[in-house]
Design brief:
The structure holds two protein chains of two kinds. Chain A contains nine helices and no strands. Chain A is mainly α. The two termini of chain A are about 25 Å apart. The chains are: A mainly alpha, B mainly alpha.
Chain lengths: ~220, ~210
């Protein structure tokens, strides 16, 4: 079985579980809606103020939803000795990481689409015109978030105080991704050309590359436990 | 051996105090406040050294699985957090009279704070796992991610905003500092490094004894 095929099987397994159980997706959808209400209550009805805060709120929403979604990604493996099954998988263990990472990217993409649409509707921001550059920024940011998130989720799945430790470990590491994506999102929403934020995009792409590489290299050590 | 290192560090610190308060001249612009630099700069350099050792210990542990590497990483992580905390606190005390504020979201302050948080998380992870073997592996992964992340944090925060004076010792040009100040700084840096080495060997010894029981 090839490397790509093994990664694909992991991805497909997770998508299938999600499609049948609909555990994470439903709750996350509702959570996103709640977040929107919370932001609205926190900032008040002033549209101007909401509009200036949108890039930051958008990413705050992704990160909060991501913490919940990503943090769950290895919990299914703890039941029925699935963890043993993963460890006994022949071949390079980093294929499992890649499959899980892809699954988490799919999940995050779904969350982001929902949140972006909800933001457009409720806060009256035009997210359609800058859709193409926004997609690029979102994609780069999502990979960075999911790459470290997947690695740390696998680790913290085995640890006591997991739901507390996961954000405490992940958030400081994600500071560069948050700074870069919020700055780039702000510029994109203001209609600036992508060239103005090229340095941020390069930083994001570089960070994604580094995080995914580290994940591929170190995942086997995490899986052992 | 460790005992001698401790005495050497104590001697170095006394010499550092003498050099910082006695030998080095009063800075013309900032006055005596500038003398906090003899604590601030050696502390941050020691913290960098410590986090470099966390990275080395982490890679060493994953490669060899010898518990000694993990003890090195864990001990260096603890002392690194201590010295980063010292850096932030001394910087705050220095910033109040010179910049007029305890804290500002300047690039280097922010990245130092991020560094602090990353390694506090590292220590938290270590404290939550009892099995020494699993603790070593997980901590090593976080140690590597944290260290590799440092340059990424550096650039992101630099572009995000840039009040702190540029580094005067590590910069590319010849240092504009008075040689006497430079010497006092050097003495303190050596003293801090000795102190770090002493703490490190003591902490690693304690960790070794803990694992025996």
């Amino acid at each position: 079985m090839t490397y790509a095929r093994r990664a694909w099987i992991i991805l497909w397994k997770d998508v299938l579980i999600e499609r049948r159980a609909k555990e994470t997706a439903n709750a996350l959808l509702f959570f996103c809606l709640l977040l929107l209400f919370l932001f609205q209550f926190a900032l008040g009805p002033d549209r101007e103020r909401l509009a200036t805060a949108v890039p930051g709120l958008l990413w705050l929403g992704f990160i909060l939803a991501g913490l919940l979604g990503l943090g769950r990604s290895f919990l299914a493996e703890r039941d029925n000795d699935c963890w043993e099954g993963l460890r006994l998988t022949p071949g390079d263990k980093s294929a499992i990481y890649l499959g899980k990472l892809a699954g988490n990217c799919v999940l995050m993409t779904a969350v982001e689409i929902i949140l972006v649409v909800l933001f457009g509707v409720f806060y009256n921001v035009d997210l359609w015109t800058p859709a193409a550059p926004l997609t690029l920024v979102l994609a780069l940011g999502t990979i960075g978030l999911a790459a470290v998130g997947t690695l740390f989720a696998a680790m913290t799945a085995q640890v006591r105080a997991r739901e507390l430790l996961f954000p405490v470990l992940l958030l400081p590491v994600q500071v560069p991704v948050l700074l870069a994506t919020v700055s780039a999102t702000q510029a994109v929403l203001l209609g600036q050309p992508l060239a103005d934020v090229a340095h941020w995009l390069k930083l994001l792409a570089g960070a994604d590359l580094v995080y995914v590489t580290i994940g591929l290299l170190t995942f086997e050590f995490v899986l052992e436990g | 051996m460790t005992r001698a290192l401790g005495w050497l560090a104590a001697l170095g610190l006394v010499a550092g105090l003498a050099a910082g308060f006695g030998y080095a001249p009063r800075e013309t612009v900032q006055g005596n406040v500038q003398r906090i630099m003899y604590l601030h700069v050696p502390a941050v350099l020691t913290a960098y050294l410590a986090f470099g050792l966390v990275l080395a210990g982490s890679i060493g542990y994953l490669a060899t699985r010898r518990p000694g590497w993990d003890r090195l990483a864990g001990a260096a992580g603890e002392i690194g957090v201590l010295f980063t905390g010292l850096t932030i606190v001394s910087g705050s005390i220095w910033g109040k009279p010179t910049w007029g504020t305890w804290w500002t979201w300047d690039a280097r302050l922010t990245s130092t704070a991020v560094l602090f948080l990353v390694y506090v998380g590292y220590l938290l992870l270590r404290s939550l796992i009892e099995d020494p073997e699993a603790r070593g592996r997980y901590a090593a992964v976080v140690g590597i991610v944290g260290a590799v992340n440092v340059p990424i944090v550096h650039f992101s925060v630099k572009w995000w905003r840039a009040l702190h004076q540029p580094s005067t010792i590590l910069g590319p040009e010849r240092s504009p500092i008075d040689p006497a100040i430079g010497l006092a700084l050097f003495v303190n840096w050596v003293a801090f490094t000795l102190l770090f080495a002493y703490f490190l060997s003591r902490r690693m010894e304690i960790a070794r004894l803990e694992e025996q029981t």
